[in-house]
Amino acid sequence: EADIYQTPRYLVIGTGKKITLECSQTMGHDKMYWYQQDPGMELHLIHYSYGVNSTEKGDLSSESTVSRIRTEHFPLTLESARPSHTSQYLCASGRGGSGNTIYFGEGSWLTVV
Amino acid sequence: AQKVTQAQTEISVVEKEDVTLDCVYETRDTTYYLFWYKQPPSGELVFLIRRNSFDEQNEISGRYSWNFQKSTSSFNFTITASQVVDSAVYFCALGLTGTASKLTFGTGTRLQVTL
Q1: Cis check: omega of the bond before A83, within 30 degrees of 0
Q2: Across the interface, which of B43, B98, B103 has its CB nearest the CB of A88?
Q3: In this predicted model, what pLDDT tens digit does every residue of A33-45 receive, in sequence order?
Q4: Do the chains contact at A99 and B42, CB–CB below 8 Å?
Q5: Contact B34, B96 (CB under 8 A)
C-alpha cells in the first residue's frame, strides 16, 4: 500500500481562477510525477521530478507548473484555469533507479466551469 | 518510440467466468519493465504487478495470473473466477531504463463483471 496523498479530491472552480493541487508522499521517494487523465481515457505524463529542485515537462504539453522544494511534496499549479483543463490529475511517486514501481495517489478531479 | 496496445476496449463477463485482458507492447530496448494497474470507479490507480524483461516466468497471485511472452511482445492478464469487485479499468504500462521510470500506458480495458 502506497502512502501518497492528493488534495483536493474534487474541485469545481470558475474560469480564470488560480488553483493548486497538492500531492504529498511519505515514502521518501526521489521521483514524483503528475499524470493527466480525461474520463475513460489513457494517462498522459505532464510533469515529473527526479528530486528536490528538479522538474521536467512530460510527454503531454500542459499549461500547469510544478515545484519540488521538499522531497515529499510536489504541488501542481494552474495560474488561470480554463474549461479545457477539466480532467483528473493523478500524482505518483517511485524510488530512484530504473524500472521501480510507481505508486499513485487517489487523484484530483478538476472541473472548470 | 514505445507503445502499449490494449485492443479490448470493454469486456463484460458474468461472475465466476474467467477473463483475459490482452496487452501488446512495442519497444526497441532490450531492458524494460511491464506493469498492470487497476483503476476502480473511485479513480485511483492500484498497482498489481511489475515484470522486468529478463523474467519471463509467469506469475500467479490468488485469482490473478500474468503471462509474459517476449516472442509475441505480450503481457496478458487473466482473472480466474471473476467477481463483481473486479469491475474496473485495467491499464497495462511499459517503462524503460534511463527515463526516470516514466511509464507509457495503454488505453485501458474496462471490465464489467455482472451477477
Answers
A1: no
A2: B43
A3: 999 999 878 899 9
A4: no
A5: no
Reference B88, options B21, B38, B14; nearest CA is: B38
With contacts defined as CB-CB under 8 Å, which chain A residues touch B5?
A: none
In angstroms, the Cα distances linking A47 to A17, A65, A106, B26 are 21, 8, 17, 23
A109 neighbourhood in chain B, CB within 8 Å: 43
pLDDT for res B100? 63
Question: Following DSSP, what letter does each residue of chain A receive, concatenated?
Answer: ---EEEE-SEEEE-TT--EEEEEEESS--SEEEEEEE-TTS-EEEEEEESSTT--EE-SS--S-EE--SBTTB--EEESS--GGG-EEEEEEEE-SSTTPPEEE---EEEEE-
Residue B37 identity (one-letter amino acid): Y
State the smallest CA–CA distance between residue A18 and chain B in angstroms.
24
Q: What angle do CA B99, B100, B106 make, to 5 degrees?
A: 70
Interatomic CA distance for residues B63 and B15, integer angstroms: 13
